[in-house]
Write a structure and sequence with these properties.
The structure is a homodimer of 319-residue chains.
Chain A lengths: L13 H11 L8 E3 L4 H4 L2 E6 L9 H11 L2 H5 L2 E4 L3 H13 L3 E6 L4 H8 L6 E3 L3 H15 L2 E2 L6 H17 L5 E5 L4 H13 L4 E7 L4 H8 L23 H8 L2 E5 L1 H15 L5 H12 L8 E6 L9
Parallel strand pairs in A: 2-10, 3-4, 3-6, 4-5, 7-8, 7-10, 8-9
Antiparallel strand pairs in A: 1-2
Helix pairs in contact in A: 1-3, 1-8, 3-5, 3-8, 5-6, 8-9, 9-11, 12-13
């Protein structure tokens, strides 16, 4: 594509994503594409899942975190990394830091799901607990950053994180060259913008649909209003997708996404159950939102050849 | 290998398995190998799962059934197929028959799990119900066979079924050339004998371990006594593995298997739960028996590079 392509004007390029793929190759799993034959009668289309729920940490977050950590200079790396996250990014960044042998300071709200706190502790890192509001999260992270000189790795509004998440799209294009529609969940938009840059540069013929819970439809509203809209409520069961878009991710999404579709809570719950019953895969509700969107807007997918990305395997069990 | 190899003396050869792979290619899924990184601390070895729970019908049975049905001459095929099975072979044979456009007569005990009856009915085939004992199953099948001229496709004691199941091993060897230990479940022994013939011909350096529930340890006892031992009880939760060995499968297993290891009920239940919690995969208890055996006999697998085959995704839910 020429330099005037709309795809080349953003914070991340295809080249960044391809270099990320090279850099993180040995630290992440090339997750399988699973044929969802058991859902075909319901979905009305060919459907395969890109199984990021089988990724390290059960989420695509391993990609961006590894790219961010392994892109640091030795000098930067020696001062460690810091982030604030209630979700899968926390454990992903902790793991990447352990792999590189550097310090990770993980700020988490003290009401985080037990399983997510445990995932960080299992890596030998004690989370720094803060109040469960974004002001406390950010001020705590800034304080740690000032005290240690650690590099802040934002969960999605970070060029290297976006480039890392985009590597999932490179794998999809290799594993399913015949795909015509890709569906990915959108929270802060790190995955979506990385996927968009990769796909719309290499294969602009492929539709990329973003999937969002109707109760956290800030990306849908942002696209309509032309500016980043805040989340209005935070009670969707898809707790990984409650975040508003970032200043780096919104322009990419605004320019390149084909459509953002929303799913209702009951459909998300149903999709999570169908994944277990008919595909034999476990994903957390956030990860089932792409399937939920396909079920709720089935006519838009009829007869298509779809790859939907599922992610997030956290279950807060008593086991 | 020379013709005097111990592997060449059985009812099925590597060549049969390779031809089966060619024949069934478009009808079965080349199932993924999933990295069980989340189980590594528990298992003490590198562990990947060959995910036959993601196969058509959620079980490896699709392989043998398709090979048996598509190996029939047009004349044989025109008279249909018949089998008796309470398990995944029933639905697999029904599906293969539908794919070839021929009749399938499926004899099932009237107390079969609702989900297994439904799996056959969903293919448009009404199971022929019989009493829940092997005499009734066999006499009903024979009667149907005599009335229709259909070919009996036994669930495991059938050359083409064994060759079909062996194709799973060809895929494992391609997907994991570095594997040194393969663990497969054993019921009637169709899968195990097919895998043994493929692996021990191509890669005799690889250990093949069979996994059996301790409450249905007939294969373990058969290996000890040197003759096919009956099942003594039929109450293991791993209901797919209650069957005794067959006259075709026993000689292969007797000659080629490295070891048969048994797992207790509680370990099987625990393994089924661990698959869901730490690998995000659902398999029925029969399919989790290989993992159960690895947990119960961990020292035998320490430091190894293992591929364990999991299969069977039936859950008798009320959903």
């Amino acid at each position: 594509m020429s330099n005037t392509s709309p795809v080349t004007q953003f914070c991340v390029t295809l080249d960044d994503i391809q270099r990320a793929e090279e850099l993180i190759r040995t630290y992440v799993i090339r997750t399988p594409l699973v044929d969802a034959w058991g859902l075909q009668p319901l979905a009305g289309c060919r459907l395969r899942f890109k199984c990021e729920n089988l990724q390290h940490g059960y989420a695509f977050k391993a990609r961006g975190a590894c790219n961010a950590v392994f892109s640091l200079s030795d000098e930067e790396a020696s001062r460690g990394v810091v982030t604030h996250s209630s979700g899968n990014h926390a454990a992903a960044l902790a793991r990447a830091a352990v792999l590189r042998g550097i310090a990770a300071h993980i700020v988490m709200p003290k009401n985080s799901a037990r399983v997510k706190l445990q995932a960080v502790r299992a890596l030998g890192i004690d989370p720094i607990l803060c109040e469960p509001d974004s002001a406390s999260r950010e001020s705590t992270a800034v304080r740690v950053q000032q005290e240690t000189g650690a590099t802040l790795i934002h969960p999605f509004n970070n060029r290297r994180v976006i480039a890392g998440q985009g590597t999932a799209a490179l794998e999809i294009l290799e594993q399913a060259p015949d795909v015509d529609t890709i569906v990915v969940p959108v929270g802060g938009g790190g995955l979506l913008s990385g996927v968009l840059i990769a796909v719309k540069t290499l294969r602009p013929d492929i539709r990329v649909i973003a999937a969002e819970p109707a109760l956290a439809d800030d990306a849908f509203r942002s696209l309509k209003s032309g500016k980043i809209e805040p989340a209005l409520r935070t009670d969707t069961i898809a707790d990984g997708l409650r975040t508003p878009l970032g200043t780096l991710t919104f322009p990419v999404i605004q320019k390149l996404v084909d459509e953002i579709l929303c799913a209702d809570e009951q459909v998300i719950i149903n999709a999570t159950r169908l994944l277990a019953e008919r595909v034999k895969l476990i994903a957390e509700p956030s990860g089932a939102v792409p399937l939920a969107v396909m079920l709720q807007h089935a006519p838009q997918f009829a007869g298509r050849n779809v790859v939907a990305l599922i992610s997030g395997g956290n279950m807060d069990t008593n086991g």
